[in-house]
Write a structure and sequence with these properties.
- By secondary structure, the protein is α+β, with helices and mostly antiparallel strands.
- Helix content is 39%, strand content 34%.
- A hairpin with a 4-residue loop joins strand 8 and strand 9.
- Helix 1 runs antiparallel to helix 3.
- The protein is globular, with a radius of gyration of 22 Å.
- Keywords: Signal.
Length: 197
């Protein structure tokens, strides 16, 4: 009788340990696959992305310069890639990053202060907040060669931050309406990205 109870308890302990290990493995797997799933969704939306590279493991944050000095944004996983549009007239470098559990709200505030460092003011910053998504960005930039804009989408559902660094590449055809090209291409990028976040 005693032996049967001991055996039963031992079996229950082994099963419980197996469930815990499986749960831990699944949690780690889902964290990694969430980034991959978002990227797959971008492709399904028709975003032509290139030069995708995975973030190196072992660093749990990135440092950004804000209006209050150097601050940290948590990052547990991420990728970097490029998107081009409008006949290569501008090229966007994107960073898709997974925030650490419970850190998204504080990461969002750090990024808001980063926008202040970029020179954003209440008049020039775009800040749209919904239960699912926070959108930060700078209003229509002066379109000349080089970095002309920064835009961030912060997903509550996936605990992810997508940051876009927008570089303008003037074409030979000066007759093109630069503002119309920029507006149309950014609308396409934002709409397709939002659908996945």
């Amino acid at each position: 009788m005693k032996t049967t109870q001991t055996t039963r308890r031992w079996v229950q302990a082994v099963i419980a340990f197996g469930i815990i290990c499986t749960g831990t493995a699944n949690a780690a797997e889902s964290s990694t696959s969430t980034i991959d799933s978002t990227v797959a969704c971008f492709r399904e939306q028709g975003l032509q992305i290139s030069d995708l590279t995975k973030r190196q493991n072992g660093v749990s944050y990135r440092t950004v310069q804000t209006s209050q000095g150097a601050e940290k944004v948590s990052v547990t996983d991420g990728v970097r890639f490029f998107w081009s549009a409008a006949g290569q007239q501008f090229r966007v470098k994107l960073h898709l990053e997974q925030s650490a559990n419970g850190q998204l709200a504080s990461d969002t505030e750090v990024i808001s202060r980063e926008y202040q460092k970029f020179g954003a003011t209440p008049e020039t910053i775009i800040r749209i907040v919904s239960p699912a998504l926070t959108e930060l960005g700078l209003r229509m930039p002066v379109l000349s060669a080089g970095l002309v804009g920064v835009h961030s989408l912060i997903s509550v559902k996936h605990q992810q931050i997508l940051t876009m660094y927008i570089n303008w590449l003037p074409t030979q055809d000066s007759s093109q309406d630069s503002e119309a090209v920029y507006s149309a291409a950014m609308s396409e990028l934002l709409n397709k990205a939002k659908a996945c976040l």
